[in-house]
Design a protein that fits this description.
Blueprint: H1 22-28, H2 40-55, E1 61-63, E2 76-80, E3 87-88, E4 99-101, H3 125-137, H4 232-241
Antiparallel strand pairs: 1-4, 2-3
């Protein structure tokens, strides 16, 4: 048996088979150009899919035709797109499909006369009916003064006599002769167009909008005291037909 000196030593220049494979040499070498694991087209496709997945919601969108891109387009990592908020291209070159939000809720409307939300005051059926009934009944009496709390007497007018002289341009005579004063005083206190009270304007009216004798009218049965959606006859008819009541069931106003 040989001693320790007889143990064969491995030649340092002789590498193991695992370290001399072409794959290991190619991975540890330093070539002039290192190719990425993904191509530019694959990176762009992954970014586009991620943006679509992040921005897609349950809303309704209108899809526009997709933008045609240049096949020779170069991926630029320092270029930002203002359309899809991605990198590598400009907004004019963006391949992302444009989506326009179309499921917008209609603007809020509210009638300041009857308080309903399906029309405005100028198209209020109850307001027109109320005005017609008022004109037919000849009820043109003035409403009692309902001013601010603590006010029992209408305030006096804040307008004063202000003499004005109508002069033309460069000292020429105007509509009024020289020296003749015109009385611009307004008779009576300030009146509110909303409640027909005195002492305040419409924008600062503390009273309710609805008149005292206001009664809602039903367009389905032409009855008083309820709206058309609360009409018992309409609900009974809807229960029999098992479907919504169409607009043809409304009673045409004379």
């Amino acid at each position: 048996m040989g001693g320790p000196g007889s143990i064969p030593m491995k030649d340092p220049g002789q590498g193991s088979p695992a370290l001399t494979t072409p794959a290991f040499v190619a991975a540890t070498s330093t070539p002039g150009e290192v190719k990425p694991a993904l191509t530019e087209e694959q990176i762009l496709e992954l970014v586009t899919q991620a943006i679509k997945a992040a921005t897609m919601t349950q809303e309704t969108y209108t899809v526009k035709p997709e933008v045609t891109t240049n096949p020779n387009q170069v991926f630029r990592s320092n270029t930002w797109c203002g359309k899809c908020h991605g990198y590598g291209h400009l907004a004019s070159e963006c391949p992302t499909v444009s989506r326009v939000f179309t499921d917008r809720s209609p603007p809020r409307m509210r009638c300041t006369f009857c308080g309903r939300t399906n029309h405005t005051e100028d198209r209020c059926y109850n307001k027109r009916a109320y005005e017609e009934r008022t004109m037919k009944s000849g009820d043109t009496r003035e409403r009692p003064y309902t001013g601010l709390p603590g006010q029992g007497v209408p305030p006096t007018s804040r307008w004063e006599n202000r003499p004005t002289y109508g002069y033309g341009a460069q000292g020429q005579g105007g509509d009024y002769p020289r020296g003749a004063a015109r009385d611009q005083r307004r008779d009576g206190p300030i009146q509110c167009w909303r409640c027909h009270g005195f002492g305040h304007t419409q924008s600062r009216c503390p009273n309710e909008k609805k008149p005292i004798d206001y009664t809602p009218l039903c367009r389905y049965c032409s009855g008083e005291g309820h709206f058309d959606e609360d009409c018992p006859k309409r609900r009974a008819a809807a229960g029999k037909e098992k479907g919504p009541v169409g607009s043809s069931n409304y009673v045409s106003s004379p």
